[in-house]
Amino acid sequence: MDFFDTTDLEKYGLGLTGVGILFSLLGIIFSTRLAAVGNALLICGVPLIIGLNSTMRLLMKPSNFKGIIFYAIGLFLVVIVGWPFWGMIMEGYGFFLLSSGFWPTIAGFLLKIIALGPLLIVQFIRWARGNAILHKQRLAHEQDVLVINIFIYSSI
């Protein structure tokens, strides 16, 4: 019985992507060539996982152009210039921007993991409390500015 209902192409894509990530990380430490091969494997593996139509839709969204540009700059830095560390940082940021629409799904999946879920919930509650406090401070500041503006304009 399979855990996931995957096709052979998706399995090949997962393998290529996994080896690509491994080679990219090893390329930062050992050799620029490993990083270049890792990038090639990633570029081949991801479309096999999500499908060619989904890949084209993802890449053609105007909101994703910034992520594509950062990924391309990182790819240029790794493959052409030979700076794997800075290239991987740029590629990572580009990938983060490209996959920003998937983060709620990923967060939901991570919260369902038995050992990790409760830990993440505690961290999320701390983060939400901190944001609520900042939001209250921001609202109080905006109200103060509004009162000052009303006072200034009413005295003119």
From TrEMBL:
It comes from the Eukaryota. InterPro entries: Got1, Vesicle_transpt_Got1/SFT2. The chain crosses the membrane at residues 12-30, 36-56, 68-86, 106-128. Keywords: Golgi apparatus, Membrane, Transmembrane, Transmembrane helix. It is found in: Golgi apparatus membrane. Belongs to the GOT1 family. It holds the Pfam family Got1. Its main location: Golgi. One of its GO terms (cellular component) is Golgi membrane. The keyword Membrane applies. GO terms for biological process: endoplasmic reticulum to Golgi vesicle-mediated transport; retrograde transport, endosome to Golgi. It is a multi-pass membrane protein. This is Vesicle transport protein GOT1-like.
